[in-house]
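Weekly modeling sync, notes
Attendees: S.R. (lead), two postdocs, one rotation student

Agenda item 3: backlog of single-chain predictions. S.R. asked that every request posted to the team notebook include the full sequence so nobody has to chase files. The rotation student volunteered to paste the first one in as an example of the format we agreed on. Action items at the bottom.

Example entry:
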Amino acid sequence: MKKILLSVLALSLAVATSSCGLTASSESEKKEEATVVETTTADEKQEKTKEADDDQLSEYDEKKDYSSEEDDPEYQFDTGYVSSERSMEVESIKRSESPDDNGFIIKDGVLYDYDGVDPRVVIPDGVEEIAEMAFWSNDVVEALYIPSSVKIIKQSAFWSCSNLKFVQAEEGLEAIAGSAFWSCSGLSDVNLPESVNKIGDSVFWAINGLTVHAPSGSYAEKYAQGNSISYDNTYAEYTMLDRKNVIRGSQYEYYDKKEFTIPDNITSIESDAFEYAELESIYIPGNVQYIAPDAFEYCRKMKTAVIDGCPDVRAEAFEYCEALEEVRFNNGCEKIGESAFAYCRKLKDVYLPGSISFIDKRAFEYTDDALTFHVPAGSYAETFAISMNIAYDNNY
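Predicted structure, as returned to the notebook:
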């Protein structure tokens, strides 16, 4: 009887437990159902909020149609960024349009290209805009004259014009976009008018020895101040080089012979003139008065260089000549610019005469740890060596 009672009791408990389980399960399902409903409602609310936000963005985009930062005209102007679509558009116009008698490709007031041979480039009056990459790596232009009709110079318009030395912009120019004159390594004088009111970033990047000439208190003057560019308030004038006496920029770029004899009539070696050449040595005669920035940059096989009296060796002139071991400056040499021999990692011996009067403190950065100056006693070069902790002796 007890067993029967116990069995009945157990069965009752099981039923009760089962009922409780079912009830709990039902409650749980109800809660889950409620949660799903609540979540769905929240998702719907979120979607509606997103739609509202999208509507607001659409209203904003109608005023400022930027799908990304690169599409922002202000971003493009400041940074010098040129979209692939715009690059292709400019290239398409360059290929499809024929240049005029002076080598210009101009369409609807926009200058897209210069294919002329005159190094003195006078942009025609009536041009309102100089397009992106219009003069990209042009090695012909030496002096540039911009008329009052031009309002804007677009991004990278004169990127790496190695022979460009002088720019004259007339009153009327308002804006110069980012990277417009990036790496124009020989550029020394730019005349900018009062009308300029906007200049992008890195417009004059990778240029040493540049002076901006602009009216006192002008935006251009303030830009120069803020970017540590030399400036004054007197417009410069320019005399064209005698091309017969110049080794032009990139003229012997990638030159594939071990030796080169510089003619006696040469007075100037321009930017990038021998860049990437396979020269193993170079002798620069005393008639050469100027070695421009980057003139012998990346001559990675060059082991020796003799500079026989050149008074002006500019910035980065022999930078990255990684096999260079010895440099001899003869009497008459005076100035050695910033990073002129930087990254010449095997450079150990430099002979410097008493005529040297200036060496930039970065001229011999990242050379061999055993770098030694051979200098006259009491000379400027000796004083410089002491101040920079460079080993030296008086065996010049």
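Discussion: group reviewed the output briefly. The chain has a mean pLDDT of 86.
Action items: rotation student to repeat for the remaining queue; S.R. to check formatting next week.
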